[in-house]
Amino acid sequence: MFFVRQMFGQAQRRAFSVSARQSSKVAVLGAAGGIGQPLSLLLKLNPRVSQLALYDIRLAPGVAADLSHINTKSVVKGYDPTPSGLRECLTGSEIILIPAGVPRKPGMTRDDLFNTNASIVRDLAKAAADAAPDANVLVIANPVNSTVPICAEVYKSKGVYNPKRLFGVTTLDVVRSSRFISEIKGTDPADENVTVVGGHSGVTIVPLISQSRHPDISGAQLDALVNRIQFGGDEVVKAKDGAGSATLSMAMAGARFAESLLKAAQGEKGVIEPTFVDSPLYKDQGVEFFASRVELGPEGAHNIYPVGKINKYEEGLLEACLGDLKKNIQKGIDFVKANP
Ligand code: NAI
């Protein structure tokens, strides 16, 4: 409860004034999954959400019936796994979250998920582009470095691509970073803010410790921290021993990102989240998408910040990131070209 209060306490008080004039429909695709269920729960507790639309290939009406008994104002509806069910779920949505797809098992990289998740995300993106072309699309399904370009290609092919409305959710890397750095320094993670740029897998995850409150972390301690942030997901995959990857921490991160977008859409200024977007920062090096700090606004991505001042160590991390990222992005683009 403390956590929910921490996340939504302030928002709740403010939302009494906003909810009267703004109603926000949020759709979750893959709502019955490990991430989908707790994510939907957190969205049901968010007073900025007026309608919660849940879709999955199984069990979405059940999850919706369960959540609908919670005594918050929003209306929850689960949709049948049919094309018309999906269309109805998406129509009128302001935000569409996509945690649909298979998670990792021990020993797998996020890229190993490509073959299954690429077509799932492509098909959901097609439906979203048709039913709600102006919605903000938040891609959680991995590999994010490739699934975001897949969405972009689908939207482009339908002539409705708006780069400001497509986001790869990298919030969990930021959440983990502040937690891990607080464990080293014995601080409150709520006071720690680590910018993470690049992509969302392995070496494409680039935490900028020099810009944090603790630029003094160096040597083996820095190596270990960076490695833990880059491969933090593996700790969960290993501990769950074949039963999946991060779901609860991811649900929290996804709900935080959705909340930030809703705040920005409802007029709050200065809302900044690192996220993986169509970005001008490294396009000259052939990298079309890149995660950096992005100020959110009513139009989606309002302002994309450059990475800022980084040190030699981080330059090395960034170089390794860009090489991998370019390949991951191209893989997504090629997939849609070959499998439209
Ligand atoms: P899960 O297997 O528990 O749930 C996935 C859900 O998607 C299932 O309920 C399944 O029925 C549904 N689904 C499958 N195909 C669908 C379709 N065509 N339409 C609608 N729903 C469909 O998996 P989990 O743990 O929830 O993970 C979901 C995805 O999120 C994975 O790809 C995982 O790698 C990714 N993930 C992303 C993170 C990030 O930081 N961006 C962090 C953790 C996981």
Automatic annotation (TrEMBL):
Residues 170-335 form the Lactate/malate dehydrogenase C-terminal domain. Gene3D superfamilies: Lactate dehydrogenase/glycoside hydrolase, family 4, C-terminal, NAD(P)-binding Rossmann-like Domain. GO terms for cellular component: mitochondrion. InterPro entries: L-lactate/malate_DH, Lactate/malate_DH_C, Lactate/malate_DH_N, Lactate_DH/Glyco_Ohase_4_C, Malate_DH_AS, Malate_DH_type1, NAD(P)-bd_dom_sf. One of its GO terms (molecular function) is L-malate dehydrogenase (NAD+) activity. NAD(+) binds at G30, A31, A32, G33, G34, I35, G36, D56, N117, I140, A141, N142, M250. It catalyses: (S)-malate + NAD(+) = oxaloacetate + NADH + H(+). Residues 25-168 form the Lactate/malate dehydrogenase N-terminal domain. The active site is at H200 (proton acceptor). CDD domains: MDH_glyoxysomal_mitochondrial. Its EC number is 1.1.1.37. Keywords: NAD, Oxidoreductase, Tricarboxylic acid cycle. Belongs to the LDH/MDH superfamily. MDH type 1 family. Homodimer. This is Malate dehydrogenase.
